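Consider a protein example.
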Amino acid sequence: MTIEEQNAYLTAHYVEAMRYMENAEGFLRMAKRDGPRYTDKKYVRTACGTAYNGVLIALDAWLSMKGVAPTGKKKRKSIEYYKTGVARLDGKLLSVLDNVYIILHLEGYYDGSTNVKAISGGFEEAYEIIDKIKPYAQ
């Protein structure tokens, strides 16, 4: 793949991941804050799930560019696929992925945590992963 093709590939995935993050932030605004908590758990859950999916889009592109392909017959990739692939390439990023998985996917989406600081921290880490596929400046 040429540099131009790589950049086009990364640009498409970066734009899509950022679109998910923008949507997620919109859902958080709908959740409204009351001090250290969001007031509407439904919107927080939706925001966290949307942001997590944006991260998976970015990871799919990043792992693909690094030559990591899914193995097996399963169509759905597990968190173990992502953790294993990331661990082989970038130990620091694995720590960030762990945090995103715990904060956004488990605590935010499944458990419905409404803690503003925790969710904000999860979003910051999500952006750190998405920045890995930020296209090269031309």
Summary: Residues 3-133 form a domain with the Four Helix Bundle (Hemerythrin (Met), subunit A) fold (CATH 1.20.120.330). Strands lie at 33-34, 37-38.
